[in-house]
Amino acid sequence: MENKEYIIISLGGSLIIPDQIDVNFLKDFKQLIIAQIEKGKKFVIVTGGGKLCRTYQNVAKEISNPTSEDLDWIGIAALKLNAELLRVVFGEYANSMVVSNLSDNLSFERPIIIGSAYKPGQSTDWGAVIAAENIGSKIVINLSNTDYVYDSDPNKNPNAKKIEKMSWEDYRNLIPKDWNPGLNSPFDPIASKKAEELGIEVHFISGGNLESVKNCIDNLPFIGTTIK
Q1: Is-contact 51 13, C-beta < 8 A?
Q2: N or C: which end of the chain has fewer CB within 10 A?
Q3: Nearest to 168 by CA among 144, 156, 155, 186
Q4: Is the predicted pLDDT of residue 64 greater than 80, yes or no?
Q5: What DSSP element (H or E) covers 79?
Q6: What is the spatial distance between Cα 206 and Cα 212, in angstroms, rounded to a whole number?
Q7: CA 79 to CA 47: how far, in whole Å?
Q8: Angle of CA points 33, 39, 42, to nearest 5°
Q9: Of 44, 54, 45, which Cα lies nearest the Cα of 18?
Q10: Which run of H or E residues covers position 226?
Q11: Mean pLDDT over residues 94-109, rounded?
């Protein structure tokens, strides 16, 4: 049975730390989530690594010859740092411990569980899907610095077309087939396959448009892409 009380958010690291930590975004995001908690919602928020992650990974590749697993461990450390920041930002609203393994029993001591990462080969997106499966939610909200999924990279192709609704099959044909550390894809291929198998739909919304995030949570029309 679908559990609509619980909201799963995959929070891209590019929103937490694009170049430096985005204090204004974190303040506004906190205000939005607390307003929803007052309506009776509970949240699992899984953090990404962002530029912090890629900076460390790039230095490792420049100086050494790291394996994919090495790079993943660096990414996991970056995710954990961002997760701890978010846990402290939410203070009394968040469980006292960050959850690394989101397949474990998720106990809401408080209205927010902050998730990070558990082991190599598993991204923020994967953690969000596993959390959704764990608590019976059929929706994941993916927040990043882009407003839609596009048919090609809008940073490289000025004629890239936004897509408002699409199937998992069509989406997976747009992205790489394999996961690798630091992959820059709206939703990673392993998590996408799992979401499709579980019948989970993912809403892609720009974290810069928190009004749309609010509308999505409230089951109102929003600006973004839905994949199901």
Answers
A1: yes
A2: N
A3: 186
A4: yes
A5: helix 68-90
A6: 8
A7: 6
A8: 55
A9: 54
A10: strand 225-227
A11: 94
- For residue 193, the SS3 value is helix
Work out the mean pLDDT of the chain and round it to a whole number: 91
- Are 164 and 226 contacting, i.e. CB atoms less than 8 angstroms apart? yes
Task: Write down the pLDDT at residue 39.
Answer: 94
Q: Using CA atoms, how far apart are residues 221 and 228, in angstroms rounded to an integer?
A: 16
Each residue's pLDDT tens digit, 139-149? 999 999 889 99
Residue 106 tokens, joined: 């998720």
Architecture of domain 6-227: 3-Layer(aba) Sandwich (3.40)
pLDDT, tens digit, 9 for 90 and up, residues 183-193: 566 788 888 89
* Secondary structure (H, E, C), 134-184: HHCCCEEEEEECCCCEECCCCCCCCCCCEECEECHHHHHHHCCCCCCCCCC
Least Cα distance to 210 among 141, 150, 137 occurs for 141
Nearest CA among 194, 210, 225, 160 for reference residue 11: 210
* Both tokens assigned to 156: 């490289």
CA distance 162 to 177: 21
